[in-house]
Each structure stands twice: as structure tokens, then as C-alpha cells.
Predict the 3D structure of the following.
Amino acid sequence: MSAPVLALETSCDDTCAAVVGPGGEIRSNVVSSQGIHDRYGGVVPEIAARAHLELINPAIDDALRRAGITFDDLGAVAVTQGPGLVGALLVGVATAKAIVAARGLPLIAVDHLQAHVSANFAAPAPFEPPFVCLIASGGHSFLARVDERSGFEVLGATLDDAAGEAFDKGARMLGLPFPGGPHLERLAREGDPTAFTFPRGDGVPGLDCSFAGVKTSLLYAIRDLGPQETERRRADLAASYQEAIVDALAQRAARALEITGLGRLAIGGGVAANGPLRARIAALGAEVHIPPMELCTDNAAMVGLAALDTAAVDRSSALALDAYATGERDL
Amino acid sequence: MDDAELRITADPQETAQLAADLARALTPGDVVLISGDLGAGKTTFVRGACRALGITGRVTSPTFTIVRRYEDGRVPVSHLDLYRLADGVDDAALLEDELSADRVAFIEWPSAGLGGLAEERIAARVHLEHLPGERRSVRIERRAA
């Protein structure tokens, strides 16, 4: 492929479009948040689909303009096929089909989770396989072994809540606003991470993890302390809670490095923004790669990067491409 | 809804067992609503029900993804979580892909609103409450036979 790829991502709340060059250069990366956030930052699935519909064309125009190109310059169109909300995904899929049909371009279907892994391949300094990849976000938490650009093997994943969800729900219990992760991290700076001992999911075998237990333990601690004492010790609770989540993730990452014998680790997903997690990961002694945050949270540039290593859909069936809610991997 | 039972469970395994007992009577098109505070065991309940329906894969929280689907059991299942939704879903038609007649649906945080869902589709309403320690009270209201 010698011409840039236009990539679209509409799997959840954000409407994303990007232009990625054939060598993995990110020419533009546009994220339009839907602006219909409620008190928890959420959206109704079908309303999400309608908002994606309104935002997708402006997002594409913006991505092309920022890249300094037009539809005439494109070599292919890539789109997230799943997993995600089907109604939301279909906006991206239908838009991509319309463009490829009108322009005679190849269509490349990308898995959202592969895209998170492929975020590591951005130029000018791609992090090449083999490596261990930890993806931790609101919707997903998993560890993968990446031996080639076009695929990965799941080593372990959460059995219940995702790490980012644990941050958000813990923040909510402590009366912090959405998005909970950054607020909780800020409050935790004033607290003692050893003040309370919360579970790390130590009983979970292998490289799977569990964050429902830590959430429930925080709830019990708040219940046992009572409102006044909880208020007084909020920072200690936040710091100890964060410590448990970070420790659980770092322990699993360390174990994955040991089991695979790979000395290289990449992290992604929104939780990669967490300072203490970054510090713990840096101390593991591996060669660590963390893409810029705009490539860690949901975005379309990672979809374009994944597309560079994915075969196009056969032209005769491109217009029949359907979205999928759940991928083939048990995640 | 005239058949209500209230049970106390000692731990998550017992909560899952109650769910399994409920799930065995479910048929395609049934919807089960599960309410209760954070950490009360809603996802644990759905997991227990899914295991009884023959689903072997991960049953994880759909809070951020809103919907997860499980297709490997004896009936296809949609697992919804309306926690993040703003003003509720006034019109059940908005969720019709997930609440179709060939699927069983479990809905966490249903109080966020499910306005138009036909009452006869609701096979059971489950409410979980925290008790001291790991115990929970589980109230199950089943649809009248």
C-alpha cells in the first residue's frame, strides 16, 4: 500500500476518524466526543448511533483536512468491525462501505482489540514484536503475547470488572466526579497507599485478574468506617484502592514477562495514563513502550495502524460486511 | 408478579446458585431485571444464571460496553448494564436488538429506565442488598405462571 488509509472507529462513545500513512505515520487523529454525557459520562446505545451519524462526516472531513489530503489521495478505508455496540459500529461500517463503493477503494475490517495492540506500531518509533501487551481500559483488561504485527494471543483477562471500571466505580463510592480515574489518582496523592489493605485477586489462577473483589472491599471499608471517618480518610482510601489495582496489574505483567521470557512490555488503554501504574511498570526492568495517550484511549489512528497489517475484505463481499458485538476471543 | 421469595445468601457462590435455579426455567424472549447497589453481586448473579444456561466463556461486567452477548449456551444471551445511561431508555424499542424474542436478556441497573418493555416479557425481578459481611439478601419476584 503506497497511499494513506482513512480509518473510522465508532465502537462506543466517541466518533473517531484518522488518516494514517503507509509507513505508520499518523497524519491526523480526530476524536469527537458526543457531548451528550450524563452524570456518569454515559450514552444510550441507540442515541450513540444517532450521535455517531451526526458526527461521522464532520470527523472525516476534519481528519482529511488536517492530513492535507482529499478522498482522491486515499489508498483504502479501514473501519472497526467489533466488538462493541452493534448500532454504533454500523455507523462506521456503513460510512466506510459508502466511501469504498463511491471511490472504488479496498475496505479493511479491523478488530477493536487488535487496534489497541497495533497502537504500538506508530511511526517514527514503532515498538516491534515480540512483546507482552497489557491493555487496561473501562471496558477491557487483558494481557497478550504479541509475536507478529497481525495478531496476538490472550494470556489472561479480567474475570469480572475491567481495571478502568474499578477506578471509576471506586471514585464514585468516594464521591468523586466522572471520569473517576484521574480524580481518584489526584486524591490518592495526598493519601497513604498502605493505610488499608485491599485484595489483589491473588486467588485468581494464571494471568487472569479480578477487580470485583477490590471494589466490594472498598465498599465494606466505607461501610465500616461510617460517613464521618470515611470523609476524614478519603485520601488514604483512594491511595490504598489505587495501590491494589496498580499492584494487581503490575504483578500480572511481571508474571507474563517471566512466563514468556520476553523482556519487552507495552501498555495501552485509558488506564495507561495512571502515574503510579507507569512508575510500577517502569520498575519491572523490561523495555517498556507506552504510546502517546491519544493512541491509548479509543481512537481511529490505531485502527489505521492495524489496517496496514490486515488484508482487505474481498471486493465482492465488501458491501455485505457486518459489525459484530462480541469477537472470537473470550474477552 | 405475585410469586416473591426472599433468601439470604452467605457468599457469592450461594448467590450464583440462586441465579442458576432461576435460569433453568427461562425460555427465549425472557427478560430478567437485576437491581442493587454497587458491589451487591449483580454480575455474580448473571454469571450464575449464564453457567446454568450452558455458557462457559467469561461473563464480565458490561458497565462500559453497555452490552455483552454470549452465544455459546443453549439460548443466546444479552447481558446489559444501564448504569452509564443518562435518563433511562424510555422506549424499549431502542434496545430491541438485544431484547429480541429469540434471546434471553439480563439487565443490570434497570431502574435507569425501560419504559416500553412489555410486562409479560419480564420473567423475574431480582433485587440484591448488602447485609453484614459477605451476606446478601436476594429478593426474586417471578412472573405469575
In short: Chain B has a mean pLDDT of 89. The beta strands of chain B are 3-9, 31-35, 67-70, 77-81, 104-108, 122-130, 136-142. The helical segments of chain B are 12-23, 42-52.
